[in-house]
Amino acid sequence: MFKNRNQSALLALAAVTLTATGPSALALDQIIKPYQSVRSSGMGGLKLTTGLYDENFFGNPARVVENPKWKVGLLDPMAETSSSTLSNLSSLAGSGDTLTNLAGTSGKNNHARLQFTSPSVYINKGEGKWAFAFAMMTSLQADVNLRSSYQLNPTTIVDMGPAFTVGRTFFPDERLAVGLTTHATYRLATDSNFGMADLIQGRSLSPTQSGGEGAHLDLDLGSTYRLPWEWKDFVFDTGLAINNLLGGKYSNLSLSIAGTNASTIPQPRTFGFGVSARRPTWGKFNNTTFALEFQDIGNNTNGSLFRTLHLGGETNWKRLALRAGLNQGYLAAGLGIDLWALTLDVSTYGEEMTLNAGGLEDRRYAVKIGLQI
């Protein structure tokens, strides 16, 4: 005889079976990113030819030479969620059976992220050729989605560890730059094989109880090259980056915090490239940039090429930055305010949750507050 908990679970599953059609019945396969920049997401995900400061730790390390000034980051909390999470909040946080609550969110992804890149230090190249950056990185991201009666895709990932970036310019005109980032990262994540049967049997979604862990030392290598011609005062830069050069397996460092026996979700080696056009001044605006990039090649197995496409730009007016773009084919927009010791960035963008662009959009909203000297 079933217990009350299992009876509620079966009723919830039956309801989902009857309602799961179209996109809600698809398995989700989003691209896992170890770091998400609010500025970048507002520009359609650009970072390889436009990245500054924290964006270079998991983007193109050669861009460290473009940081306009040195600074020390004291605290920079970043929070992100999705429109479906906000609409499902009462169901997710409500009392009662977990499976019954999840059934009420069927067909939507419930996403949340909390991230810190602090303390951090950025030393720009000034009149020299070398630039450096260092930060302690911490990220917690969670996605919980019920797609059909027995298809549960929970993903919770905790990443933490230091990152150090160094970059150098070459040639008398400094049009070539090369950079390298070293990561020492610990990852704790849910078991990728966790399914609905596990939840029915009472297995916890917590990665400390049902997940795996690992740590690694890995490298990112990148370069930028400024083309030797201009057009209507626009200068053109190209960028190329290889991330997780050593494979991203979280296995070449011995570190156990949660005490699990399982391995963790890997972060595959990826490639990316792009081109940007920048105009220093344009009427009342300055540092206006447009760019086109292809990213996450290698982290998009069986996925559409359009999922790697990022297009957008940014322009600045006094201490206000305006951003817009297309992320995987979905609209993105953002706003940044720089008040010397305090910065505020907000953005919204669409993330593709299936293998093909246009399959299922997860509309997300992010905010970051930075305290710096």
Written description of the protein model:
This protein is mainly beta. It has one domain (4-372): Porin, CATH 2.40.160. It has helices at 4-19, 38-42, 83-87, 89-93, 98-103, 196-200, 207-210, and strands spanning 71-75, 78-82, 109-123, 130-148, 151-152, 155-170, 176-190, 211-231, 234-243, 270-282, 285-297, 309-317, 320-327, 330-339, 342-352, 361-372. The protein has a 16-stranded antiparallel β-sheet that branches. Strand 14 (330-339) and strand 15 (342-352) form a beta hairpin. The protein is globular. It starts with a helix and ends with a strand.
Strands, helices and their partners?
Layout: H1 4-19, H2 38-42, E1 71-75, E2 78-82, H3 83-87, H4 89-93, H5 98-103, E3 109-123, E4 130-148, E5 151-152, E6 155-170, E7 176-190, H6 196-200, H7 207-210, E8 211-231, E9 234-243, E10 270-282, E11 285-297, E12 309-317, E13 320-327, E14 330-339, E15 342-352, E16 361-372
Antiparallel strand pairs: 1-3, 1-16, 2-3, 2-16, 3-4, 4-5, 4-6, 6-7, 7-8, 8-9, 9-10, 10-11, 11-12, 12-13, 13-14, 14-15, 15-16
Return residue spans where pLDDT drops below 50 for at least 5 consecutive residues: 1-26
* Rg for CA atoms: 22 Å
Beta fraction of the residues? over 45%
H/I helix tally: 7
The overall pLDDT average reads 87
Quote the distance from N terminus to C terminus. 64 Å
List SSEs in N-to-C order: HHEEHHHEEEEEHHEEEEEEEEE
Q: What is the CATH topology assignment?
A: Porin
Shape: globular
Q: Examine the secondary-structure arrangement and name the CATH architecture.
A: Beta Barrel
Give a count of the beta strands, DSSP E runs of length 2 or more: 16
What's the number of structural domains? Answer: 1
The major β-sheet equals:
16 strands, antiparallel
Class from helix and strand fractions: mainly beta
Helix content: 10-25%
CATH class bucket? Mainly Beta
